[in-house]
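Researcher: We're reviewing a set of sequences before deciding which ones to prioritize for further study. For each one, I'd like a predicted 3D structure that I can look through quickly. This is Deoxynucleoside kinase. If possible, include the structure in token form so it fits the rest of the review sheet.
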Amino acid sequence: MTVIVLSGPIGAGKSSLTSILSKYLGTQPFYESVDNNPVLPLFYKDPKKYAFLLQIFFLNTRFHSIKAALTDDNNVLDRSIYEDSLFFHMNADIGRATKEEVATYDELLDSMMKELEHMPKKHPDLLVHIDVSYETMIKRIQKRGREFEQLDYDPTLEDYYKRLLSYYEPWYENYDYSPKIKIDGDKLDFMASEKDRQEVLDTIIAKLKEMDKLPEDWTPSHN
Ligand SMILES: Nc1ncnc2c1ncn2[C@@H]1O[C@H](COP(=O)(O)OP(=O)(O)OP(=O)(O)O)[C@@H](O)[C@H]1O
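Model: Here's the predicted structure for Deoxynucleoside kinase, in token form for your review sheet.
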């Protein structure tokens, strides 16, 4: 069957779509736990000190989940390991990591990615990228209310978030580990609108059928 991985900026709705999609397909969801991440609040308080440690933390947790996902071969992951490097290089570009830290990280990531070459499946079957504008991203971040992500917690976050979005566009264009599709997260509110949700699901299912990952007569499992 299929391994699907979601990508997109903070608050794009990756976890929500992971839940919707895995139920629809009857496969297993893998979530990154933000609440159980002890380094994330430290990072937001002192990014320069904790950027490298946070990256090592994420690399470790995502490596475990992608390995499990590629072995089970039938699941949806709420964030890709492929985006972490974007985050870290962006942080390094604004002076939050030394060039030695960047070189060490890049080498470690490279070794870990080579390990994945030995998995029964080497990469996900499909990347589903949720594209959002700055306005949508901020609205969702506010609605969710994680204290350390709010602009009044740290006003420099506005620049951080805008910069992050500008790094995403070339990242998506260059991503070539698997087939990919983009969902317009500004236009399609798959949380609030049932019609939008169905449109998103139909788009993903059509892509999986086109890739021969689902039979033409496939219908959803209802659970
Ligand atoms: N590699 C990384 N480097 C720095 N921060 C990261 C990295 N990956 C995730 N984060 C941070 O972790 C938090 C959770 O991010 P993520 O986008 O994965 O989940 P989310 O915001 O719950 O997404 P969604 O709403 O789309 O489900 C955010 O504050 C984000 O900035």
